[in-house]
Amino acid sequence: MRFPAAADYNELVQVPGLCFTDAEITRRVAVTDALGLPVPVSGASALTYRFAGPGPDIAVRCFTREIPDLFARYAAISAFLERLGSRFFVPFTFLAQGLRQGRAALPVIRMEWIEGPTLLDFVRAHRADRAALRRLRGQVLDFALEQKRYGYAHGDVQPRNILVDAAGRLRFVDYDGMFVPGMPCREPADLGHRDFQSPRRGSGDFAPHLDRFALIALELSLHALELCPDLLVQFDPQVQEDAFILRRSDYADPAASPALAAMEMLPGLARPVAAFRELCALPLERLPTLDAVCGRPKLAFFRDPWGALRQGRRTGRAVAAPGVAESVPGDAPGDTATDGPSATDAGGGQRLSRFGKWVLAGEMPGTTPDWLDPPDPPPQPPMAPPPRGTPPALRAVAPAPAPRRRSRAMLAAAQSWLGRRRWP
């Protein structure tokens, strides 16, 4: 199938009522610039146009090159993502004959328009915001765990294919190279972005392990930028490429990579970088998953906050709750901080700060567990008096008053006090 050029698509999308067959597209108009020309977002195999009108804006993806088994590929991807219902993907509709050019019918994809920057632009704008980068790392790990559980792969994980929506959530786009269970195709549509793919990847690699190298490289780069934002300027001074720190040349010769050498000097990254150097030489099917390489940037709440406070006050450490001990972000097993005790000391305590401060653990900074301030019970109708002559044993007993809630302010003050206190 021969696809139109970019200039031809720019003309077709300006008359959606004549060229498109889908009603959701024909009742909208393409967004244009100051000169009245459409503004497409260019990709490796398609142009994406934004259409505005009644209801929310939509994106229309028009293909610019031939993709093997396009119809069967997207039929399998669409069915799988509909069953999956993942928050990381954008629902879409594949229209096999969605666009007309003369007598030819061309396929297009209609999907929701996600308002937000790409991950590349977001990181460049927020490289000094360590909390934002840590949240991104947590979402990358969640995505890797979802892939591991359901056995799929995106195929081209790179910052240009990841959007950050208004709520700060990662949304993956461009599903041309995706692998899903039951896929009838045996080869990928492309080999992904060269700066995020293993040098050992070939056209025969098309399985659930397809994204492991890219996710490890992405998480390692975000972790390094969280610790040292200046690395982004140091290794991408022109801000013209699609990578953060690492490039294809770093994977080809990791021992001589200046970027990996700089990352290795950061606290807590010596062992992950050394392990990553070895991963560059492994085949894709032998690569570990992301959760086996890094720990989650997350802490855990105690079920007994007051007991934990008392023990923390006596011992100067927070005790991990049973079964929910989490690794400290940025620490490899056995690493120690220069200004505080080890990550897990002899008493079984879990270190929650690299700078010698000890605080109560929490799932995310600034949140309060549901058990601490539970919602009010639903109002109960007034109890009717028992009928005359009812035996006392059968009379309904009024429920005991609910226990008094513990104050949020008291817990916050205790956390703040423990955080400021330096323990011997």
From TrEMBL:
Residues 313-350, 363-424 are annotated as: Disordered. InterPro entries: Kinase-like_dom_sf. Residues 372-390 have a biased composition (Pro residues). This is Protein kinase domain-containing protein. It comes from Rhodovastum atsumiense.
